[in-house]
Design a protein that fits this description.
By secondary structure, the protein is α/β, with parallel strands linked by helices. About 40% of the residues lie in helices and about 20% in strands. α7 links the parallel β4 and β5. The model is unreliable at about 1-15 (pLDDT under 50).
């Protein structure tokens, strides 16, 4: 089992400016609300489900979120940290379907602003809030949360040991950390761009074994790893079966004109077995 090095570049963990540049773009909230109107959805009646096609920025969308939440097994109504919350889809799902009180953090200011506005739009701002913050230096006291979720974020974090240690610090003893990430060798040969990186220098892949080593080093145990490749392949196949023009609400609103290329390169790599989407659930050990 090989311990991960700080990624395949000289960057500090998920170099803040590089991550912001990759994900940030102006007018995200307006693009989403315009697409809702085109889809015939009254903005006064928008629900969490209406937003699902755009705000679940990971392979499998809402179905993948539901699977990870079920595997985490947290009782309803807990205090939850959403690491790399994007435009807030997972946080809103956790708040609306499970009554959790969720704090989402993200490096990208446009994502934080959009997450806040969309959450207000669906009337969940009392249950889910967002702030710009770095998982390497979380602005929360120890034992602030009962559980944490991280979906398709680790690929932008080189120093996973430090990130996981920070998550452990803010969890209560016995707290659950549920991860859904793209896993692969740091040297994996991918065609770029992909959803999380424009070049290989921006990608911080690690193997499941390396994730486990870093989780253990951060104070987590009971580590359960589940390969979700079959789920992903079935999901990709279902997308190919769709006919007609793409729906107005989708991930293209976040990825822009390069969306087909980014997504297509990732799909090819999963189909080739070069990378795999995996669920990893761990529990903070008692001090």
């Amino acid at each position: 089992m090989r311990t991960a090095t700080p990624g395949n570049s000289a960057r500090r963990v998920g170099d803040v400016s590089a991550v912001k540049d990759h994900y940030g773009r102006d007018g995200i909230f307006e693009a989403i609300t315009d697409a809702l109107v085109v889809a015939g959805i009254d903005l006064d009646e928008v629900t969490v489900n209406h937003l699902g096609p755009v705000d679940e920025f990971h392979v499998g969308g809402r179905s993948a979120t539901e699977s990870l939440v079920a595997r985490a097994g947290l009782p309803d109504g807990k205090r939850i940290l959403d690491v790399g919350s994007g435009v807030g889809g997972t946080a809103r799902y956790l708040a609306s379907n499970h009554g959790h009180v969720v704090t989402g953090i993200d490096l990208t200011p446009e994502y934080v602003e959009t997450a806040t506005a969309l959450t207000r739009l669906v009337g969940l701002d009392a249950k889910a809030g967002f702030e710009q913050a770095d998982v390497l230096d979380l602005p929360f006291p120890a034992e602030s949360f009962d559980g944490a979720f991280m979906l398709h974020v680790g690929m932008n974090i080189a120093d996973k040991q430090r990130a996981f240690s920070e998550v452990a610090r803010v969890l209560v003893d016995g707290g659950v950390f549920a991860i859904y990430d793209i896993i692969g060798e740091a040297t994996a040969q991918l065609n770029y761009p992909v959803p999380w990186a424009s070049t290989s220098e921006e990608s911080c892949l690690a193997t499941a074994s390396e994730y486990a080593v870093h989780l253990e080093g951060a104070g987590f145990g009971e580590i359960d790893v589940v390969d979700r490749s079959r789920f992903a392949l079935d999901f990709f196949a279902s997308l190919r079966e769709r006919t007609g023009p793409p729906p107005p609400i989708g991930l293209h609103l976040l990825m822009g004109s390069e969306a087909p290329t980014r997504y297509g390169n990732m799909v090819k790599a999963v189909e080739a077995g070069t990378i795999q989407p995996m669920e990893i659930v761990a529990r903070k050990t008692t001090n």
